[in-house]
Amino acid sequence: MLPVIALVGRPNVGKSTLFNRLTRSRDALVADFPGLTRDRQYGFGKLGPVPYIVIDTGGLAGAREGIDELMEQQTLKALEEADRVVFLVDAREGLTAADEHVADLVRRRDVPVTIAVNKGEGLASDMAASEFHALGLGDPVVISAVHGDRVSAMMDSILAGFEPGAEPAEAAADSIAVAVIGRPNVGKSTLINRLLGEERLVTFDQPGTTRDSVRVPFSRGGRDYTLIDTAGVRRRARVHESIEKFSIVKALQAMEEAAVVIAVVDAREGITEQDVSLMGLAVERGRAIIVAINKWDGLAGDRRRQIRDELDRRLPFMEFAPRYFISALHGTGVGDLMASVDAVYAAAWRDLPTPDLTRALQSAVDAHPPPLVRGRRIRLRFAHQGGRNPPVIVIHGNQTDRLPGSYKRYLINHFRQTFGLDGTPIRLSLRTGDNPYKGRRNKLTPRQQRRRKRLIKHVKR
């Protein structure tokens, strides 16, 4: 499973800045669960030798009442989930009483800790780190989250010993790995037991931490699957329990292991922020995904129309994902759900021949040419496949870095329709050919300049 890194510290020491650097985006889809936490965020770390989950916690000022008490509770929960802790302090302000309070919380959890002395740009490392040795949590590391100074080296050290996980589905090519995700009480357990067969005694109630995912092999319609359970598969005597222990980390780790994600939502409650965040993280991770709107039976027509409109409004980034309106309790629509798992899995792993991709690209360009940029037409010349799960399409041309987002979405939709890639995200990788003569014009001989002009004319044709 993916390792979990928790960022802790008092307010304004740079935890969110470091979080954004580790996730490599300021506008990345990250999960902020207002009903469960105040400002704890989850994302997939991308800076370091192996992938991981990173948690950004609220700042702790050391107060024992009001909102500070709630934040402390959330920080303790993050520490329980973490495999490693990054304890941020401020090099400019030095050691404070609030830092010592956070250190006391960290010591309660037997987990490796790295003290990151942030805002250390322009300061001598030894001097910036000196007073933080007093915390007794090891040698501090001086970094700058804003500028990235020494952050990569710090993550290399923190993640040493963790091995990269196997690619989803490749490890068990004959079995499709399926993760069922969703908030508590949306019907995950009911759906899981329906998929496994009601007559079957489930005995995969394995001991372990709350972050352990349970892998359950099963067959349906002659096809083998591995169910990665995020709700906790229960023995028959306990299947009617309504309270599920919700672990966001468990859901994110299950996404990483799975080839296909089934996102379950409750039609009677509508689409919540938690639903949107979980599905956004699944899309960010590139997983093929299906939306199962559960408890559809018994809803009035007006409510059904309202839910359909809400799906369109709240999930515009999920237009590619099939939607199924089901009743896990009665089994309605569940058979169609598994047929869709097969289809989106095939789409995510489809081979896309280069000639076919290039023809599809030219068809899209002929129908709607790219816009002019500074009087010059963006030219897209050919395409090839750069990866699977999700499909990555590499497009070569000139000025591709100036291609508008709206045109990229147009190309993605065109490729999706052409190759039947419903249910899986599609990534575009745009490549612009380098001009070997760029910046050297004044150094060329007359013969080289004539050759350069002929080459440019040839490329433009």
Q: How are the SSEs placed, and which strands pair?
A:
Layout: E1 4-8, H1 15-22, E2 31-32, E3 41-45, E4 52-56, H2 66-81, E5 84-90, H3 97-107, E6 113-118, H4 125-129, E7 141-142, H5 151-158, E8 175-181, H6 188-196, E9 214-220, E10 223-229, H7 248-257, E11 260-266, H8 273-284, E12 288-294, H9 301-314, E13 323-325, H10 334-348, H11 354-367, E14 372-373, E15 376-377, E16 379-387, E17 392-398, H12 405-419, E18 427-432, H13 446-460
Parallel strand pairs: 1-4, 1-5, 5-6, 6-7, 8-10, 8-11, 11-12, 12-13, 17-18
Antiparallel strand pairs: 2-3, 3-4, 9-10, 14-15, 16-17
Helix pairs in contact: 11-12
Instruction: Write down the Rg.
Output: 26 Å
The CATH homologous superfamily of the largest domain: P-loop containing nucleotide triphosphate hydrolases
Low-confidence stretches: 27-38, 199-212, 232-245
Q: Give the termini separation.
A: 51 Å
Instruction: Just give the CATH class of the largest domain.
Output: Alpha Beta
Proportion in β-strands? 15-25%
Q: How helical, in percent, are the residues?
A: 25-40%
Structural class: alpha/beta
